[in-house]
Amino acid sequence: MIDDKLKLIAMCTRRSALKLEMLGMKRSRSPSAYMIIKRAYGITGNRAHVLEQLEILIKQEKEAQERNYGNVQSIRSN
Question: Are the CB atoms for 68 and 4 separated by under 8 Å?
Fold first, then answer.
């Protein structure tokens, strides 16, 4: 259960980092959040498409956790 929640937290953190990159912020070290997400989840495409696909994966993970553990309200969707 803890591993599943950490997986979801990591996905949400990476999503936030990608959103900041899309606004112009840069990581102080490489690789970029965009590259990390592409490698970790096997998503291809531009930043907007990768963000869209990651949000789908986050939604699927939340639904899976809700089925397995009940309502997951402590992790925000935005």
Answer: yes
